[in-house]
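Training component of the fellowship. As part of building independent skills, the fellow (R.M.) carried out the full modelling exercise for a liganded target. The chosen ligand was flavin-adenine dinucleotide. The inputs are recorded below so that the supervisory panel can assess the work.
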Amino acid sequence: MTDSPKITKLSETISVFPQIHTEDIPSSASSRYNIVVVGGGSAGIATAASMLKRNRNISLAIVDPSDNHYYQPGWTMVGGGIFSPEVTRRKEKDLIPHGALWIQSSVSSFNPESNSILTSDGQEITYDVLIVCPGIKLNWSAIDGLPEALGKNGVTSNYSYDFAPYTCRLVNEMTSGRALFTQPPMPIKCAGAPQKAMYLSCTKWERAGVLNNIDVQFHNNGAVLFGVSEYMPALMQYIERYNAHLNFTSNLVAVDGERKVATFEQKDGDSTKRVEVEFDMIHVVPPQSAPDFVSTSPLAAENGFVDVDPATLQHVKYENIFSLGDACSAPNAKTMAAVRKQAPIVAVNALAALEGKSPVADYDGYGSCPLTVERGKVVLAEFGYGGKLLPSFPTWLIDGTKPSRLSWLLKDTILPPVYWHGMLKGREWMVKPHLIGAD
Ligand code: FAD
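Fellow's submitted model of the complex:
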């Protein structure tokens, strides 16, 4: 162990890992594994658990610096005052699957030619197969003044564990004035989350009888409210009901918290103009991009994300590298629902690669976005590549294009335990990997 003092959780892992005991581990064993997973978020833990369910004899390490693991889909509900923040956070150490080793460190670079990665504290870790899933980077500072403004003067965001509760407080306290909700350029994780924040705020103001006193504005850098047209009629009903004003190609570029002024760049024919809008409250979604250590690496596609085949999630150049979740280049909606489907596929494909075989399973681009249009009702958008609708339930049970109480029950009550006790434990409920050529 002389060369790897940074493997801080080894003793804890060993206590639950019958095949390995401290005294059995040679000094060099700490840095070479059959499988190395970069990122122990939704994708990393789920994939590791799925792999270990299939083969407990592999050596598998998960590299992630974070003490905590977050159920981020719950943050919309925290902002809406439905969940407490604490239910969305668990200790990473408690989620590491039995049989996996957690290396609590941050990966800084990839060297695919020598099958190794380097961590920021200087560890070199080598692998037979690498799985890359460090999520997406939130660029808070890409909006002038935002980092300083957040958390006070009416400036908030559900995209942060720390600030989502402030959304709830602001909405509870607001009885009149102007509320702005913003959506940055794509890609972002959960493209529906910016408008979910607006609907859950409006439903509260409606119940409190103050909605008519509030000027609600949605400012979207894009040109449409939602990318899949089948869901638009239901969403537009709520836009009208809440009298929310939609502004397209309107991109937030600066926030002045003290003056309570937001600056937008708006398309005006061929030119752009800057428009200042005063607010009493603003919910900001930060611009997002591939993490720097990914976008500057040999693994990156042109857009900076890990360059994978959209069906097999195998790297287009390196056959022993796979990627999934928000960090991969596949053109699906970046959601936890997508990860649920991708993790078993990557698990079987990576195990095949470990045996020198080709991928055996493929992914249809499934992603889902439960749009919380009012308290108690959700429009459950489920779709795959090319916007093809991929409903999980028969229409008589849940028609995803209509607001539904049952879909709310899914979001509110069923999905969180499915996440913690199913997906992160490698239980592949309703997401068995589809084998290539099976139908
Ligand atoms: P993450 O879960 O973000 O995990 C990335 C991990 O990588 C983290 O643990 C991080 O510590 C680690 N990491 C980062 N850098 C490094 C490094 N250098 N080295 C090693 N490890 C590193 N999805 C839905 O399906 N439905 C929803 O309703 C929904 N709502 C959402 C609402 C909000 C407000 C947000 C923010 C997200 C929402 N999502 C939703 C999206 C969902 O949370 C993500 O798509 C999902 O978490 C992606 O999983 P991931 O593993 O790729 O990334």
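The panel noted the following from the submitted structure. The chain has a mean pLDDT of 93. The chain has ten helices and 23 strands.
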